[in-house]
Automatic annotation (TrEMBL):
Gene3D superfamilies linked to this entry: 3.30.420.40
Official protein name in the record: Type III pantothenate kinase
Pathway as given in its UniProt record: Cofactor biosynthesis; coenzyme A biosynthesis; CoA from (R)-pantothenate: step 1/5
Cofactor note: A monovalent cation. Ammonium or potassium.
Originating organism: Christiangramia salexigens
GO biological process: one example: coenzyme A biosynthetic process
This enzyme's EC code(s): 2.7.1.33
Compartments reported by the entry: Cytoplasm
Keyword list, A-Z: ATP-binding, Coenzyme A biosynthesis, Cytoplasm, Kinase, Metal-binding, Nucleotide-binding, Potassium, Transferase
One Pfam family in the UniProt entry: Pan_kinase
Binding site for substrate: 87, 94-97, 172
Subunit structure: Homodimer.
Lineage: Bacteria, Pseudomonadati, Bacteroidota, Flavobacteriia, Flavobacteriales
Amino acid sequence: MNLVIDVGNTFVKIAVFQNNSIRETWKFEKKDFLKKFQKIQSQYPKIQNSIISSVSSGDDFLIKEVKKHYPLLELDQSTKLPFQNNYGTPSSLGKDRIALAAAAVKEHPGKNVLVIDAGTCITYDLKTSEDIYLGGSISPGLGMRFKSLHKFTANLPLVIPKPEAELIGNSTETSILSGIINGIKMELKGIIEAYGSDYQELKVIFTGGDSQFLSIPLKNSIFANPNFLLEGLNFILEFNKTQ
């Protein structure tokens, strides 16, 4: 069994894999890590290997705790990857984007794949049919757009996101909803179309915390997988076992 850990700024996501299949997943605040980690250990005593991806240098206590119990692969820019990385500045490539590219290679080898991760930011990552990672783009996420309008203006309210919005808002609230929700929808459709025109038979994977929320208008062309990043981390761990 493998223990796969993805540490964000606030939340930790953990999955236990057996034979490359997820047995169980958890999501909780970072402050609850020790308690949750002990429970997982007790529940799954056959865990033998682990991998961790952390966005913060302040997560050393998590890493030390896991190392006490299991061999641990810490994902960084020197980790051996199951794909060719052609990113121009690999030292600055986010660990989440590395894991998503790995998952795309595992699930769709020999295919052109665009992975869209809708979280704090919306990231777009492309791997080609030759299983080469090229890069992509980063834009503000759903929550960030609503908060920025409120924070950086004098009078605009903080609006609660909704999955649908009229094209023409007839109040300040509905105008904000129109601008952000329809703006993201058009961004997604436009980028997918642009990539699709350059890369034949493009597969699109939509994941991340807001993926279900934002994939509604694109459901006919999008495959949403909330555990895609965790699957990529597990694939990297399995790949490094053979190196």
